[in-house]
Amino acid sequence: xxxxxxxxxxxxxxxxxxxxxxxxxxxxxxxxxxxxxxxxxxxxxxxxxxxxxxxxxxxxxxxxxxxxxxxxxxxxxxxxxxxxxxxxxxxxxxxxxxxxxxxxxxxxxxxxxxxxxxxxxxxxxxxxxxxxxxxxxxxxxxxxxxxxxxxxxxxxxxxxxxxxxxxxxxxxxxxxxxxxxxxxxxxxxxxxxxxxxxxxxxxxxxxxxxxxxxxxxxxxxxxxxxxxxxxxxxxxxxxxxxxxxxxxxxxxxxxxxxxxxxxxxxxxxxxxxxxxxxxxxxxxxxxxxxxxxxxxxxxxxxxxxxxxxxxxxxxxxxxxxxxxxxxxxxxxxxxxxxxxxxxxxxxxxxxxxxxxxxxxxxxxxxxxxxxxxxxxxxxxxxxxxxxxxxxxxxxxxxxxxxxx
Length: 404
Ligand code: GLA
Prior knowledge:
By secondary structure, the protein is α+β, with helices and mostly antiparallel strands. It is 41% helix and 23% strand.
C-alpha cells in the first residue's frame, strides 16, 4: 500500500472507531542494526538503520484529560485519564511510577510515556488515538521503541508541545526501564527518532553524538530474515548480560580507576587484567570490546566502498554474539549459516537483543532470489517453523503528518 492509500485507510479506520476525523498521524519506524550489538548500554558504538515499517498513532486531541486508545493488531481498546496517572491501585516495576493493573502490554508504553512527559513538567491534553502499523511485534526490529516514540510524538502534538529529540529518546528509553523492566540501551529510540533514508546512523551511545553515513551499497541490498521464534529469554538474559558487563567494569576498576564503562577499556589493558575476571564475565567483556572496535572498522570499510570487508565484520559480530556473548539461538544460527553459504552474500548476523527475532544479511541483488528460496525451504526443514523475509528499504526517522 502506498503512503497516501495507507493514510486514507487509517483515516477511515479512525472514523469507524471514534466517529470523527483524526488531526494527525505520528509514524515511527522499526530498525535493523547492521553492527554494534549489546554495545549501547556499555556506552559504545552502534550502526543501525531505520526501516520502512512503521508504528502509526492516528490521533485527535480531546478537550478533557482522557486518553482513549484502540490498538488494531491487538483488537483491543484501553482508556486512562492523564489526571489520575500515578493514582492508587496501580503497580509498576518501580513503585513510584505506577501503571494501572488493567493496562494491556501495549498500553503500558503509552501510560509510561504520558507519565514521564507529565512528570517532566509538561501539561498534556487528552486524545483519541488509533494504534496500528506493520513493524513485526517481538521480532527484534524494535516494535516497542517505535510504539513509544510514535505515542510520545502524538502526545506532544495533541498538546501543542515540542521537545528536543535527544531528550525525547532518553525519556522513551526510561519507559522501558521503569514501566516494562527491560534495562535497554539508547540505540532503538535514537535511530527511530534520527534515522535518515539511505543512511546508517553511527551513534556514540555515551555522548549521543551521531553521524549519518551514506549506505553506498551499489548492487547490494539488506535482507531481514525473521526466525519467528518468540524471544522468551530476552528480558531476563538481556538484563543479566548488562549486569555481567557492569561487574566486569567494577573488577577492572581496581587497576583502571578512571574507567566508568567498557567503552573506556582498551584491549591491551583488558588482556593484562582479564584473568582477574570470572570466566563468563571475561567472555562477555571481551565480546563488547571487540564489537566496539568492529563498528568503527566496519564503518571505515563502508566509507572505502569495501563491502566484502563490511560483510566480514558482520560475520565476526555474529560469531562473537553466538560464542562469547551467548545471545544467539539455534534458529538464528541456521539462518546465518544458510545465508553465508550462498555466493553473493557478503555477511549475515543476528540483529537486536537475540534469543530469536531476526537476522540481517548483506547480499548482492542477484543472490536474493536464491537466498529467499533456500531460507523458505531449508529453514522449515531444519527447525519446523515458517520464516518471514523482508527486503529492507532504509527510511527516515519518526515524523508527524497533519491530516487535512
Ligand atoms: C535491544 C535493546 C537495545 C540494544 C539491543 C542489543 O534492542 O533495546 O538497547 O541493547 O537490544 O544491541
